[in-house]
Amino acid sequence: MQDWLWQTAADLGRGIAAGRIDPVDLCEVYLNAIDSHELTPRIYARVTHDRARAEACAASARAKAGQRRSPLDGVPVSWKDLFDTAGVGAEAGTALLAGRVPERDAEVLRVATAMGLVCLGKTHMSEIAFSGLGYNPTTATPPCVNDAQAVAGGSSSGAAASVAFGLAAAAVGSDTGGSVRVPSVWNDLVGLKTTHGRLPLEGSVPLCTAFDTVGPLCRSVEDAALMLAALEGGTAPDLQGASLQGMQFAALQTIVLDDLDATVRDGYATALDKIANAGAKIVPLEVPELTRAFEMSLPLYTADAYANWRDLVEAAPEKMFRQILTRVRGGKDVPAHEYLSHRAELQQIRAAYGRATAGFDAVLCPGAAHLPPKVQRLIDDDTYYVQENLLSLRNTRVGNLMDLASLAVPTGVPSVGVLVNTPPQTEERALRIGAAVEQVLR
C-alpha cells in the first residue's frame, strides 16, 4: 500500500475503478503518512482527518455501487490555506487572519468535493500569497524536495511539498504571478495556471483580484487535466495520441532568457532540442511590448493587493513579515488614474501579444530563471530576498500579465521546468501539448 503514496492521481483513480484500491484504505495510508512524517508541520497548516475519512467512506460506497462521480472520485488531495473550508481554519499564511474559521467551503472546493475528491487538509503558503519564494517566518517554510536547505517556491509552497514528499496525490493552489508554477518547477511537478475567471474565486482569500487564478499541482499532465475537470465539474480533455509532430512553437526571447542560471539555461536548451527532435518546429520570438507590461506590473499588482489588504494591514502592521508588508504598502501611493490607465494599456499589450503569437501552437520559455534559493541566505540578506523574489516570478508572470493558460512541465533536470503558454481559455490545448512534451522529456 505504501506505493500508493507515489502513484499518480490518475492511476489511483483507475485502481479505485477496478476495485483494487478502496478509498478508505487509500485515505488511511495518506493520513498515516502525514501523521508520521517529520516534515508535516512545515507542509500542512491543518490536517482534516474527520472530513477526509467521511469523504473517503462515501467514495468507497459509491465505488462499490458503480456510481463514481469522476475519474478521481476517492483520491486524496491537499488545499492551499487560502481556500475556505467549512469549520476549519483558513488563514492564508498570515497572523492577520489568525483564528479565521469560515462557515462554508470555497466554491471550487465545493465543486471538487461533489466530484469525489477527498480533502486531506490545508497547506502552508507564502504570507497572503505575495511571494514566489515560499519563505514564511510567521507560519512555516516548506522545504524543496531537491534541496532541504532551500525554499520550495511560492506562494503554493506547501501544496507543492505535499505532493513532492508523498503526502497528497495532488494539490490545489492559486496563481497570481506564478504561485502554482514556480513551486511546481522547483519540485519537479506539473502545475497548471488557468485563465483568469475559468475557475471560481468565491471563498478564496484574495491577493490581486484582477490576476488571481486557481490551479492544480500534480505528478503528471494527465493528473492536471483530471484535476481541472474535477475543479470545474467538467470532463477532462482526451490526451491520448498527443504528439509534437508538425507542431510550431515560439521560443520567447524577450525578458525570460535574461540572467538565467547555468543549470536552467542548459536544461532548457536540452529540452528544446528534445522537443524539436520529436518533430516540432521551434522559432525564436521577440515580443517587445512585454517590456512595457513588466514596467507596469509593479503598480498593477501592489495597488490591487493594497486595496484588498489595506484595512487589516494598517490595523496591525506589526503582525506581517516585513518583506510582505513593504510589498503590500507599495500600492498605497498608486493613483487611481495611473492604475486605470495601466489596465487599459495592458489590454492593448495583450492584443499585441495575441497577434504576435497567433501563428504558433504554443509559446515556450523556462519555468524559472534560477534554482531555489537557500533559506538562510534569504533570512540574512534583505537585498538578496527582494532580488530572488522578483526573479522567481519573472518568467511565470508573462502568463498572468497576458492572461494565458500556462502549464509547467518538468524537464528531467531537478528544479528546471519549461512553460507551455497558450491563449486564454485554451487549457485543453496546453494540456494536450504538455502531454506530448512530457513524453519526450521524461
Structure characteristics:
16 helices, alpha/beta, eleven-stranded mixed beta sheet, single chain, Amidase signature (AS) enzymes, two-stranded antiparallel sheet, 442 residues
Could you please describe the fold and organization of this structure?
The chain is an alpha/beta fold. It has one domain: Amidase signature (AS) enzymes (Alpha-Beta Complex), CATH 3.90.1300.10. Helix content is about 45%, strand content about 15%. It is built from 16 helices and 13 strands. It has helices at about 10-15, 25-35, 40-45, 50-65, 105-115, 155-165, 180-185, 220-230, 260-275, 290-315, 320-330, 335-355, 375-380, 380-390, 395-400, 425-440, and strands at about 45, 75-80, 120-125, 145, 145-150, 170-175, 190-195, 215-220, 250, 280-285, 360-365, 405-410, 415-420. The strands form 2 sheets. An 11-stranded mixed β-sheet has the order 1-3-2-6-8-7-12-13-11-9-10, with helices on both faces. Strands 4-5 form a two-stranded antiparallel ribbon. The longest helix is centred in the last third of the chain and has 27 residues, at about 290-315. The radius of gyration is 20 Å and the shape is globular. It holds the Pfam family Amidase. GO terms for molecular function: catalytic activity. This is Amidase.
Sequence-ordered SSE layout with sheet pairings:
Layout: H1 9-17, H2 23-36, H3 40-43, E1 44-47, H4 49-64, E2 76-80, H5 107-114, E3 118-123, E4 143-144, E5 147-151, H6 157-164, E6 170-174, H7 181-186, E7 190-193, E8 214-218, H8 221-232, E9 248-252, H9 262-277, E10 281-285, H10 289-315, H11 322-329, H12 336-357, E11 362-366, H13 375-380, H14 382-392, H15 394-401, E12 405-410, E13 417-422, H16 427-441
Parallel strand pairs: 2-3, 2-6, 9-10, 9-11
Antiparallel strand pairs: 1-3, 4-5, 6-8, 7-8, 7-12, 11-13, 12-13
